[in-house]
Design goal:
heterodimer, A: alpha/beta, Rossmann fold, 2 domains, 5-stranded parallel sheet, 4-stranded parallel sheet, globular, B: Alpha-Beta Plaits, SH3 type barrels, 4-stranded antiparallel sheet, 13% helix, binds zinc ion
Chain lengths: 306, 154
């Protein structure tokens, strides 16, 4: 099977998603494999992200592959003005696979066009981060026993949150109902609502984060309101406390409700929630390892061997 | 002088080439720029503010001995969507059609997202036209959607 790059969640069909999640479950049952024996993966982190890099590098290592790369562009030739194209072509001489994160949007797409080896996008600015979406879907499927017909409430920064926009695309195959909770300034953009409208996906919008909405939900997907998004600090201070989840708000929630968060969190989930069995965000991060193992095998065209 | 005669005189005859008609006067020089007329050695006539029954005033460009590829000429639909093309051979209009946006735009439009890779790397921009009627396009790289009124020509 030929390898292929994973640049954006939009390129995944329903079948692609289900196949990757099925393989992720196999890796969860048995994470230590030798499928990448003799293979070298390059992790190119032009923008640092310890969490994502460790997850990908662990995935390669547990598959028996080796890792080369860098974790900060200030130590590479791109800081001397080398083009992205030249860096990618240089690395393509050495590695079988590129896993890259870049602060510029579209960088991974461009890299995948200039090189013959597969590229996995580990985040390109505010644009895409498909492995995060797939691990979110894996976590949803694992905790609910299914992906279809779920009521998903998404809370926080719905305007700039790329994980949220990708989650909508990824879930769109599975007949979801969405509830969007955000302060007025951070409401879901028209573009994403248009996607829902076109596919007849029902959604409601709220500016108050109430128990009533929580009690209807199977999944509560919390996100961080990022200070960097605001030019007006007064507005940030006012807005950041609207979407905070406290343990007492969960008292009448559904038994199967699980709370997800792409992490890192700031204050949007109170620490008293951590001990609630419905809190799932730490396990969610662990699921990233298995999902990334499945994505790497998919990119290298060896998923039939899993 | 008859009305017909008058009309003919407005536009000097073209033996072979392309006449671009019904250009909104405000867009005339942008169209000339987009077609890179300044780099051509052909005989070119540019006229503006001609009387037009349909649009009040209009601009017109006539280029002798030039026949455009569709993608080359269709890019002007970005800034002047209702322009009419006349392909002329032997003083006869052999083909007359309105320009329409092509499905893809390569190297013509600048992405208006400063954090897009295309604004930071020596490379061609690539856009998909996602709504031909409204003129909305989407950057293939950063995936940003740009509405017609915000489109920046390179
Ligand atoms: Zn762009």
């Amino acid at each position: 099977m030929p390898g292929k790059s994973l640049v954006s969640i939009d390129q995944c069909s329903r079948e692609d998603i289900l196949r990757i999640l099925k393989n992720a479950a196999r890796f969860e049952a048995n994470p230590n494999r030798t499928l990448l024996n003799g293979k070298v993966a390059a992790t190119l982190f032009f923008e640092p992200s310890t969490r994502t890099r460790l997850s990908f590098e662990t995935a390669v290592n547990r598959l028996g592959g080796r890792v080369v790369g860098f974790q900060d562009a200030s130590t590479t030739s791109s800081s001397k003005g080398e083009t992205l194209k030249d860096t990618i072509l240089m690395v393509s001489n050495y590695a079988d696979l590129i896993i890259m994160r870049h602060h510029l949007e579209g960088a991974a797409r461009y890299a995948s066009e200039v090189t013959g080896i597969p590229v996995i996008n580990a985040g390109d600015g505010a644009n895409q981060h498909p492995s995060q979406t797939l691990l979110d879907l894996y976590s949803i499927q694992k905790t609910q026993g299914k992906l279809t017909d779920l009521s998903i409430t998404i809370v926080g920064d719905l305007k700039y949150g790329r994980t949220v926009h990708s989650l909508i695309v990824g879930m769109s195959y599975f007949n979801p109902t969405f509830h969007f909770v955000a302060p007025e300034e951070l409401r879901m953009p028209e573009e994403q609502k248009n996607i829902c409208d076109k596919l007849n996906i029902p959604y409601t919008e709220h500016t108050d984060f109430t128990e009533d909405i929580i009690n209807q939900s199977d999944i509560l997907y919390m996100t961080r309101v990022q200070r960097e998004r605001f030019t007006d600090m007064e507005e940030y201070e006012r807005v950041k406390n609207i979407c905070i989840l406290k343990n007492e708000m969960l008292k009448n929630s559904k038994e199967n409700l699980r709370i997800l968060h792409p992490l890192p969190r700031v204050n949007e989930i109170a620490y008293d929630v951590d001990d609630n069995p419905k809190a799932y965000f730490i396990q969610q991060a662990r699921n990233g390892l298995f999902t990334r193992q499945a994505i790497i095998c998919e990119a290298l065209g060896i998923n039939h061997l899993i | 002088m008859s009305a017909k005669k008058k009309k003919e005189l407005q536009v000097a005859a073209l033996e072979n080439g392309t006449a671009i008609d019904h250009i909104p006067p405000s867009q005339l020089f942008k169209v000339a720029h987009l077609l890179e007329l300044d780099k051509m050695n052909n005989t070119i006539t540019i006229g503006n503010n001609f009387y037009s029954k349909k649009m009040g005033r209009k601009g017109m460009i006539k280029i002798a001995d030039k026949f455009f590829e569709e993608d080359e000429i269709n890019r002007i639909a970005l800034i002047a969507p209702n322009v009419i093309l006349n392909v002329i051979r032997d003083y006869e209009v052999i083909k007359k059609y309105p320009v329409t946006l092509p499905g893809k735009l390569t190297g013509i439009v600048k992405c208006n997202n400063p954090k897009c890779i295309t604004n930071n790397e020596p490379m061609l921009t690539r856009f998909d036209v996602i709504d031909k009627e409204k003129g909305a396009i989407k950057c293939r790289y950063c995936e940003r959607k740009i509405n017609k009124e915000d489109i920046i020509i390179k």
